[in-house]
Amino acid sequence: MDNQPFRTDMISVSDVSKRYGGHTALAPVTLEFAQGQIVALCGGNGAGKSTLIKMIAGMIPPSTGEVTIDGIGWRRHRTAYAKKIGYMPDDFQFPGGVTVREWLGFYAALRHVHPEWIDEMLGKVGLQEHAHKLCTSLSKGMRQRLMLAQAAVAKPAVLLLDEPTNGLDLHWISWFVAMMKEFRQSGQTIVFSTHQLEVATELADELIYIHDGKLLKTFICKQADRQHMQEEIQDLLFAAAMPSA
Ligand SMILES: Nc1ncnc2c1ncn2[C@@H]1O[C@H](COP(=O)(O)OP(=O)(O)OP(=O)(O)O)[C@@H](O)[C@H]1O
C-alpha cells in the first residue's frame, strides 16, 4: 500500500443502473464505500448482486450513472481504473493445458508483480503443492482459491469478489474470513457477494440487501446485533421467495 491518507469516499457509485432490453437488472443506486471497508451484497438469486459487482469492476457498462474509484472513472481512464481492482467472477472456465502456476504467473506478469510473490500467494491460498496441476483438474474449492489468488495477487486497492466462498469447505471459509480481515487491516477495500449470511455478518462493515434489482436495505454492521441482523435478512429472503398474493 502507498502512504496516501485513507479516503472516506473511495468507491463512488452514482445513480448506477443496468437494463437488459426491457428488463431492469438493477434500478439506479447511489453508494459510497470508504477505504478499508468490507461491504457484503446479499439477496436471493437474480437480485442484481453480480450485476453491481461487474459494473464496479468495469466488466459491463452501466445503463445510467458512473462508478469512480479514487475519483477515477472507468470510461475515461480504463488502465488506471483497472490497476486499482482485483476481480473474482462467480463462475469461470479455465482454459485447458494451463497449470496453476502458469495461470497465476500470467496474471502476476500482467500486473508487474514480483515472481516471488506468486509462490507466496500460492502458499497463502493452499495451492503450492498443486502448482503444477492443470487448472481444469482442480476441485471447485481449489478453483475458487485460485481465482481469489488471481484477484489478490497484485494487492489491488479494491477487491471485488463474486460469491468467493461458494464451494469452500468450513476450514477454507474460516481462512477466507481471516484473510479478508488481514486485507482490511492493510487498507484494502472489499466488496463481495454471498448467500452465506454468517460470512456476511462476520466480515462486513456494511451489508447491502438487494431484491429484484432494488436496493432494499443497508445494515451498518458495527452497530447492529449479528444474530438479529441474520434473522432479519433471513425473513427478507423468505418473504421474497413467497409467491405474491
Ligand atoms: N447478460 C445478461 N442478459 C440478460 N439478463 C441478464 C444478464 N445478466 C444478468 N441478467 C439478469 O439480471 C438479473 C440480475 O442478475 P445477477 O446475475 O446480477 O443476480 P445475482 O444477484 O448475482 O444472482 P445469483 O445469486 O443467482 O448469482 C437477473 O434477472 C438476470 O437474469
UniProtKB/TrEMBL annotation:
SUPFAM superfamilies: P-loop containing nucleoside triphosphate hydrolases
Gene3D superfamilies assigned to the protein according to its UniProt record, in alphabetical order: P-loop containing nucleotide triphosphate hydrolases
Record domain ABC transporter: where: 11-237
GO MF terms, alphabetically ordered: ATP binding; ATP hydrolysis activity
Pfam family name, one: ABC_tran
CDD domains, A to Z: ABC_DR_subfamily_A
Keyword field: ATP-binding, Nucleotide-binding, Transport
PANTHER family reported for this sequence: ABC TRANSPORTER ATP-BINDING PROTEIN ALBC-RELATED
Protein name: ABC transporter ATP-binding protein
